[in-house]
Amino acid sequence: MRERRPAVLVCLLLGSSAEAYAAAQEAAAPPPRRTYDAVRARVTPRVDGRLDDASWPDVPWSGDFVQREPKEGVPPTRQTQFKVLYDDEAIYFAFRAFDDPKALSPLLSRRDRFPGDWVEVNIDSYADRRTGFSFTLSLSGVRGDEFISQDGNRWDTNWDPVWEGATAVDAEGWTAEMRIPLSQLRFSGAEEQTWGLQVQRRIFRQEERSTWQVIPKASTGWVSQFGELRGIRGLKPRARRELLPYVVAKAERFEEEPGNPFRDGGSAGTSVGLDGKIGLTSNLTADFTLNPDFGQVEADPSEVNLTAFETFFQEKRPFFIEGNDIFEVPLAPVIPGSHFTRDRLFYSRRIGAAPRHSPDLAENEYADEPAQSSILGAVKLTGKTAGGLSVGILESITAHERADIDLLGRRRRETTAPLANFFVGRAQQDLRGGNTLLGLILTSMDRRIEDAHLDFLTAHAVSAGADFAHYFDGRNWLLEANAAISHLRGTASAIDEVQTSSARYFQRPDNDHTTYDPGRTSLGGHGGSVRLRRTGEKRNLSFQAGGAWRSPGFEINDLGFMSRADEINQFGWVGYQFRNPFSIFRRLELNANQWLDWDFGGAPLRRAANTNAHAHFKNNWRLGGGLTRDGERVSNTELRGGPSSRWPGRWSYDTYVNSDQRRRIFVEAGTFGHVADEDSGGSRTFWLDLTYRPTNALSVTLSPSIGRNDPEMQYVDTVSFRGSDRYLFGRLKQDTRALTVRLDFSITPDVTLQYYGAPFVSRGRYSDLKRITDPRADAYRSRFRPFAPESVRLAGDRYALDEDGDGAADYEIDPPDFDVREFNSTLVARWEYRPGSLVYLVWSQARSDDVLRAGDGLSFRRGLGQTFDVPAHDVFLVKFSKWFAL
Q: Both 197 and 49 in a single domain?
């Protein structure tokens, strides 16, 4: 079967059905824009899902929905109708979803999971044809809500407005009602309102979606294509005033450490805080938090990072992710992806990060160090004017953190993080009906450094940027560009740390295009990108091409995220899509990508190309994968401050298969890895997601993975010998086992229980130590010289290396072997006892160990089981919050 697949795909691509489909897409005319006239309610509807209120007969039904998935443009298998009423307090929606009541799918889940059958309303109350508010109500009563931005390219599920919804089942199918308070929307003060409107329905058992306003799949926009909601008159914008005070009771239990007064086995305490929203005007809202608590947030996934670069982790704290789209300013958001696509001017996880200083302790000293910098408070102002100007301002202050240090009962304190201020300002103007966008951003970080031992920290960092996007030729083409500058100030030691960081390594001995100056007290640079895209409107074929750059002195990591400076990147992507079903496919996508990288000295760093395919079959299975070829590359970072070096090319691959997710049991599985040239090693990882849904209210997912990493050349250490540096590498054999367990149990739509557990083990053993001798030699094996076995011996707890073979140790290194065992889990019971008001019961447990272990292998069962041998740190938390609308 496998050998026949490529031939089958070629025939399908060239077949008459594909040609007919492409021709139909080219000839398709824009669908007419639909309208609906709302009516003011005589009697306020009671939200119970039954549609028997006195006011509903006053307003007509609208229907004639059209199928969007799987087959575009045809009638749906079951029709849908809706009505709209409003009063001075809220807007109301009624739905009639025709169906067989015995065939419905009333799946339960926590909020924003969108389970089973549902109906959805999208409202563009700004009438800017770019942003909108989405409200989804499942048949089971589960609510989902999203803030839509970038004309439908971004849907933020972290936006949680306060609204009501209810459903009922009858002989004709099911009905639903929504009540959306006007205070949760933003709109102008015009006497008569015209809002954008879209209504959708999902039939779960058929994975079918139909819409009121037809929007072709090939369309480049979503909000801009909405129909219109008219007839809303005499409404005054409501200034939103909401307070959410909370109380947290917390107890911790951990292993007692004899002699350590800070590790006596446990602690307990309470704290209070306040979240709030204040509508300053009808278009501008201030969100604020005082002494925030994020105890219910899941821990980051475990990892062993063997690179010189920081890992990018997603933000999970509600305050920083809700409504954060205005602050999202990536330097190069390109379709084909690469390491530089994560670079962004604002990375909210810098706020409240772990202190970067840890005290040096004398014998018999113990320290109680803060795990994070406390956020004293933060305020976020966001909004959009009637003229299309989006505004965002974020201000946050983190505390002056100190470690308590005990020496036989005598206490002292040492600063681990200074008082710090973080500021982000953002503005973006819509022009030409949203077809042109102009934006500006400013970020600033200031630390009040009063302790000499913190002089390695940057005192002041600022960046400023501008971005531009322009649709033309009927939105078939999109031109985008952005540019930014950065400037740092600090002591010489602080700026020296920036110069010698993994982002630039100015101290490289062969670096002849930048200047390393350890006496500098400031540093500046620039970066940005230019992208041209054919969007695919009415066409199957689309592409993107462009370039990005970050100058050697560009540095944004005090408030942004960037892996590497001193790079110029060129990229290209082309994709061909079949959006409607044909042959055995529900949908089919074929893509190809390419990348070229240089440094600012003109040295070529990378040449790579990729092809990938993704098939969605009519039986709702999915299959996909990709193959990437990297040519031989040059790296300015592999020697960690040493000269540039050449490395063999590689073939990388990834594949996946997903079964039908509508079933009680469904599976997702795949593999990814690479094979390097010159027999220089490789990696491979196998992963599996197995989900079992025994009832409509319970879902259990097991996600095991097994990985092997086997590079011949993995960095070990840099040591000095005879006046020069030695760059030491070795062959690494790393085995990693991980298992993630997720359980979601919904007692009701407002009472849910979630469990997350993730044991993780990774074992690394080094052998065949080598030192780099000629890092740019033409022949791969001429670039290093292996140590003879007798030249490496264990001396106490360190390795002694004899480079010149005279029998005497020339230098020593710490053993690089590692054995990491971690287990993170979170059990959260959540009760929304009234709209907007919550009770959380949380139990989180962390186990972490990083030690050397003897042995040759690592079995899956025994390796994961060993994580439970590590002492646990348990946290028990009760959080009570009450929502007030003023």
A: yes
Whether 768 contacts 731, CB under 8 Å: yes
Cα distances (Å, whole numbers) of residue 443 to 148, 150, 481, 619, 667:
24, 22, 19, 49, 44
Q: Helix, strand, or coil here: 546?
A: strand
- Rounded Cα distance, 195 and 193, in Å: 6
Average confidence score pLDDT of the chain: 91
Q: Evaluate if pTM is beyond 0.85.
A: yes
Asked if omega into 70 is within 30° of 0 (cis), the reply is yes
Express each pLDDT in 633-649 by its tens digit: 999 999 999 999 999 99
Question: Which letter, b or e, does each residue of 557-570 get, where b requires 16 or more Cβ atoms within 10 Å of its Cβ?
Answer: bbbbbbbbbbbbbe
**What is the separation of C-alpha 507 from the centre of its chain, rounded to a whole number of angstroms?**
33
Q: Residues 326, 207: one domain?
A: no
Domain of residue 199 covers 33-233
Phi then psi dihedrals of residue 154, to 5 deg = -135, 130
Q: How far apart are CA 79 and CA 222, in angstroms?
A: 22
Residue 854 within a domain: no
Phi, psi dihedrals of residue 452, rounded to the nearest 5°? -60, -35
Phi, psi of 866 (to 5 degrees): -65, -20
Q: Last residue of some domain: 566, 591, 609?
A: 609
β-strand partners of 576: 541, 590
The pLDDT of residue 23: 42
Look at residue 507 and give its three-state secondary structure. coil
Torsion over CA: 349, 350, 352, 355 (sign): positive
**b/e code 576-614 from CB counts within 10 Å (16+ = b):** bbbbbbbeebbbbbbbbbbbbbbbbeeeebbebbbebbb
Q: How far is 234 from 399, CA to CA, in rounded Å?
A: 47
Rounded to 10 degrees, the C-alpha dihedral 802/803/805/810 comes to -50
DSSP category for residue 540: S
Counting every residue written for the chain, the total comes to 886
Residue whose token pair is 């309470």: 270
Three-state DSSP class for residue 414: strand
Residues 333, 462: one domain? yes
Task: Please state whether 141 falls in left (phi above 0), alpha (psi between -120 and 50) or beta.
Answer: left
Tracing tokens 């400013």 back to the chain, one arrives at 442
HSE-up (13 A, CA, CB side) for residue 639: 29
**What is the per-residue pLDDT for 130?**
85
Domain finish residue from 233, 253, 269:
233
User: Shortest CA distance to 400 belongs to which of 426, 380, 374?
Assistant: 374
Tokens in use for 729? Answer: 């590498």
CA distance 140 to 109: 9
Measured CA to CA, the distance from residue 85 to residue 83 in angstroms comes to 7
- 698-711 and 724-748 strand pairing: antiparallel
Query: What is the rounded CA–CA span in Å between residue 526 and residue 482?
Result: 11
Joined together, the tokens standing for residue 841 give: 């019961």
Tokens encoding 794? 């264990």
d(CA 672, CA 686): 7
DSSP letters spanning 578-607: E-S-BTTEEEEEEEEEEEEEE-TT--EEEE
Domain contains 240: no
Integer distance in angstroms from the first to the last C-alpha of the chain? Answer: 65
Angle at CA of residue 579, ends 578 and 584, nearest 5°: 65
Taking only the tens place, the pLDDT of each residue in 169-224 is 999 999 999 999 998 888 887 889 999 999 999 999 999 999 999 998 878 789 99
Pairing state of beta strands 192-203 and 714-721?
unpaired
- Count up the domains in the chain and report the number: 2
**Residues 226, 322 within the same domain:** no
Question: Virtual CA dihedral for 768, 774, 779, 785, nearest 10 degrees?
Answer: -20
Report the pLDDT value the prediction gives residue 4, as an integer from 0 to 100: 34
CA of residue 652 relative to chain centroid, distance: 23
Q: How far apart are CA 324 and CA 417, in angstroms?
A: 26
